[in-house]
Amino acid sequence: MGYRVVATEDIDEVADRPCELRRIGSAGEVENFALNYFRAEPGEQAPLAYHYHTEQEEAFYVLSGTLFVETPEETFEVPEGSTFVADPESPHRAHNPEDAADAVELLAIGAPAVSGDAEAYDPDDE
C-alpha cells in the first residue's frame, strides 16, 4: 500500500511558462496520470501553447474564476466548479482573457501519463 500528501504550495513552479504551473503529479510520484496546478492571470494562457495530445485525454477542472478554451470549432467558457475535457487528437488552447476581472485557477489531469505526446497546433494551417 502507498499513500502520500502533497502540499501544492511546496512544489516549485515550472520556469519559463506563461503562467504559474506546479506539477503535482510528478512531485507526488504519480505514475498513471498527470496532475498539474495552473494559475493564470488575465491575459495569460494555461498550457504553453495551442496543442493537442496524441494519446492523452486531458481534463481541466476550474477551481476558481472562469477558464476559456479555444478549439477549432468554438471557444468554450468553463465556469468555476466545471470541467472541460479534450479527447486525444483534439486541439485546444486554455487561457484567461485580457479583460478578465480575476485570475483563473485550475487542475489539469491527463491520462495516461505519457511524456512527449503534446503536439503544437496552428489553426492557420487548416
TrEMBL record:
Residues 82-102 are annotated as: Disordered. SUPFAM superfamilies: RmlC-like cupins (SSF51182). InterPro entries: Cupin_2, RmlC-like_jellyroll, RmlC_Cupin_sf. It comes from the Archaea. Residues 38-103 form the Cupin type-2 domain. This is Cupin domain-containing protein. The lineage of its organism: Archaea, Methanobacteriati, Methanobacteriota, Stenosarchaea group, Halobacteria. CDD domains: cupin_RmlC-like (cd02208). Residues 89-98 have a biased composition (Basic and acidic residues). Pfam families: Cupin_2 (PF07883).
